[in-house]
Amino acid sequence: MDIKILGKGCKKCKLLEANVKKAVDKLGIDATIDKVTDIDEIADYGVMSTPGLVVDGDVKLAGKIASAKKLESILR
Predict the structure, then answer these.
(1) Predicted confidence (pLDDT) per residue in 21-42, tens digit
(2) What superfamily would CATH give domain 2-75?
(3) What is the pTM of this model?
């Protein structure tokens, strides 16, 4: 699974990244987690409000922080 966290590195982006890591660990998913900080690349996904979450090329969240529990249901 390819997971991307979109954002410049703000507090919300870091919290989303931490929650994604918790969900991935709990589910035992084989995933790569990358941070995308380039504004042009973020815009290419159509995300105008960060943080954003992209899973296997599909935008799952934009402008929101999801709990680890909510992310588990997104990643299943």
Answers:
(1) 999 999 999 999 999 999 999 9
(2) Glutaredoxin (3.40.30.10)
(3) 0.95
